[in-house]
Amino acid sequence: MTRGRSGNGMRPAERPLDETASAPRFFVMVGGPGAGKGTQAQRLAVALDVPHVSSGDLFRAALESGSPLGSEARRFMDRGALVPDELTVRMVAQRLDDPDARRGAILDGFPRTVPQARALDRLLDRRGAGVEAALYIDVAPDELLRRLSGRWICRGPEQHVYHERSRPPLRAGICDIDGTKLRQRADDRPATIRTRLAEQLPPMYEVVDHYTDSGLLVAVPGEDTVEAVTSSLLGAIGKHGERPAPVPGMRA
Question: Which fold has domain 26-139+200-236?
Answer without folding.
Answer: Rossmann fold (3.40.50)
